[in-house]
Structures are given as C-alpha cells and as structure tokens.
Amino acid sequence: GIFFVRKKQKTLLTCLAVPLGVGAVSGFLTQGSMNTFEKLKQPPLTPPGWVFPVVWTGLFAMMGTASYLVAITPKTEERKKALTLYGIQLAVNFLWPVFFFNAGWYLFAFAWLLFLWYLVYLCTKTFSEISRTAGYLMIPYLVWLTFAGYLNFFIFLLN
Fold it and tell me: Is the four-CA dihedral 139, 77, 9, 2 of positive or negative sign?
C-alpha cells in the first residue's frame, strides 16, 4: 500500500542524496584550488571548467539511481556485496579531488583514479548481475573516469 510506496520514495531520495552529497562536499573542499588548476598546462580535449560540475552532477544522479535499483531488490549476499562495493568506490571517489586539486599529487591521484576505475568496474559488473539497468547506468561513469584518467595523467606529464 501507501507505506510501501513512501518507503521506496524515501529509499530513492536517500540513494540520490548520498552520491550528490559526496560530490557537493568534495566540490566544496576543492573549490579553493581551482585557480591553481586553471593555471596548469592542460592536455588537448580539456573541457571548459563549467563542464566538470555539470557532468559530475549527472553521473552522481545516475549512480544514485543505479544504487536504488539494487537497494530495492530482495536482500541477498550479492546485493550486500554490490552495495558495499558502491560505498567503497564513493569513498575513494571522494578522496581523488582532494589528492589531485588540494594536494597537487598528480601521479598519486592518477594511481588512485586507476584504483577507483577498477572499483567502479567491479561495482558495475556486480550491479549488472542484479539489475541490468543499474549496470547500464554506471557505464557513463566508467567512460568519464577513463577520460578523467587521460586528463590526470597528462596534467602530471605536462606540469
């Protein structure tokens, strides 16, 4: 009945709020380093600065939706594994901008990004086994991380 619908709505809002909140806090923590970043030598294909928060907001909404599709399935060990991987990759994602923007550790940040990519790959694979749609919703995140890896690596080389 109505209780079940409200519970699902609350779950959806929570699943969206968590990654969007992680992104917002991470963005807040790194906003002071944007001037330094803009002065760095940039590789070809670097988008204008406004693109990053727009893309990340969309990606966080998609991954939140994917986590919701997994969270509403019956409790199983596979679901627990998928949501645990999801939480770990979110924590790793949260730290990357701090390493890259605040600390300026470009090579370490690149290695961290490779670790993040692997975690997101595992999360995507595990999500796909539970909900094909959830897996599909994670693919743009992997594509963006691949592009971010290119940018990160070449910023390291050029600077």
Answer: positive
The boundaries of the domain holding residue 146 are: 2-19+53-158
Measure the CA–CA gap between 155 and 101, rounded to whole angstroms. Answer: 11
- Tokens matching residue 28: 């807040």
Flag whether 65 is in a domain: yes
62 within a domain of the structure (yes/no) = yes
Query: HSE-up of 148 (CA within 13 Å, CB side)?
Result: 25
- Answer whether residue 7 is part of any domain: yes
Tally the domains of the chain.
1
Question: What's the mean pLDDT when you consider all of the chain?
Answer: 96
Residue with tokens 């939706």: 65
| Assigned token pair, 83 | 């949501």
- Residue 16 CA to residue 6 CA, distance in Å, equals 15
Would you say the pTM of this structure is higher than 0.90?
Answer: yes
Rounded (10°) angle between helices 106-130 and 132-158? 170
For 64-120, what is each residue's pLDDT tens digit? 999 999 999 999 999 999 999 999 999 999 999 999 999 999 999 999 999 999 999
- Is 39 part of a structural domain of the chain? no
Predicted pLDDT of residue 2: 67
